[in-house]
Amino acid sequence: MAELLLEVGIALTGIAIAGGLATRSTLSVIPAYIVVGIVLGPNEPTSILGLPVALVGDREFIDVLAELGVVFLLFFLGLEFSVDQLLQDRKRITAVGGIDFLINFGVGAAIGLALGWPIVETLFLAGIVYISSSAVITKSLIQEGWIANDESSPILGTLVFEDILIAVYLALLAAITGGGGLRQAVISVGTAFLFLGGLAAIAWYGAGWLDRVFSTTSDELFVLRIVGLTTLVAGAALALGVSEAVAAFFLGTGLSQTSHVERIEHVVTPARDIFAAVFFFSIGLTTDVTLVAGVAALVGAAVVLTTLAKFVSGTLSGRVYDLTRRRSLRVGLGLVPRGEFSLVLATLAASIGTGRLGTVIPAFTVGYVLVMSILGSVLIQRADTITDALLSRTTSAE
Amino acid sequence: MTVYETDVPGVGKKFEVDLDGDERLVLVMHHDGKREFFHKTSPDADAERLFTLSGQRAREVGAIIQGAYFQPVELSDVEVPLGDAIIEWVDVEVGCGLEGQTLADANLRKRSGASVIAIQRESETIPNPDPDETFHAGDILVALGTREELDALERLVESDED
Q: In this complex, do B10 and A80 lie within 8 Å of one another by their Cβ atoms?
């Protein structure tokens, strides 16, 4: 017990220090958590300057916390999912979401096919490079003050579209890879959608009931009920072979229709932050740096191609919203960061663990997310320099 | 006045308020209660961050703006209630007839009913001015009287040509 408690203490303190350093250098915290996981984890590097740093083992306890991190990331995604905004602006959101999906998913699929990967592995790769990071992008938008500008509309609209798509996509991938042949896959896809459909129905029509369940004046009871029910639903989903993350997403959308949203934001966010930080940390923990180095060429190629792809699709999306050239270019730069959802997909791949899913894809994703989350934040911070350079080349006046 | 309201997923809500001309005030309300204020010189301009308030502070500032701390009397002139009579400040404009007259010459009390209880001249105040005190352009007369009397006085000061 003492040993485990000490390890968890070291892990959480390491996460806290890394987060502090990242915030001070105005970079995203996600790569910092991963790096501290790599350093403290059992794989290389095991010593720095002669000091042993492999202090934290890959323990089941940390895995459970990390799993809760995935569950709550998706739960909050559902909770903050604005159905009203989607309906109000469905034409434009569908347009920018479609452009974003076709170009970026297309580039990801093309990379997979060019490498001669089988279909399932290609689907994972395409999803990983397609999905932007809501966490990194939202933080950067606030930091740069873009949140008050017009370019925030297409950026956030694209994220809303991606959020639904990733929920459906996770459900689909989890079902397809459930093992067995085609018939088995069809059955498991069916089961998944029945379960999720039931959950969605409860979420939509049971809003009044959910409202009453969570009505309490005590914050303590409130947070226990939310965390309890969410974990229970996620666990039940996983036991049925359905993606736990998607189940949590649907529960979140159900609660987004109740009067408790703001309170959940206030009371449950700290719990989500701890679990999510441990999730990123555990990604680093299980990462073998030598494997990442082995896929460096693939990471490099993907970084270049998918940065350009997002830049192009984002710029086009800005045009859909009738923005000026400069603002459209900003949309393109703003959507570059990739992060938590790519890692969620990689975790699913690792849990299946067949072929490249257990080795190449997780290693690739860690390297890719480390680069893209940092590169993405830097591109947003340096956006004015970049757009100036690009606009001065074009002769047409705005 | 138009207020545009948008949901910002994962952040909170954004409000945009049209100000005079093309200017816009943008207020981002975070889920944690933090409020960020931005200013746009035109709808197309980049927003400039003005300041950030915590939830608690925002409520206090909001109360001040709403007038819960101090409620100004929204009249064109500042007044202090004093029974039936009120005190009002009357400007002596450049080129008005009072310039150069003494209090006794102008005979304001007789003609309007309001009495001049003090004269503010630049940074000094002359309380209970003597009858031979001369009016200067730029003086501010502090006058006491009923609303009608003060209106009469204002008309006198504005039109006094003799």
A: yes
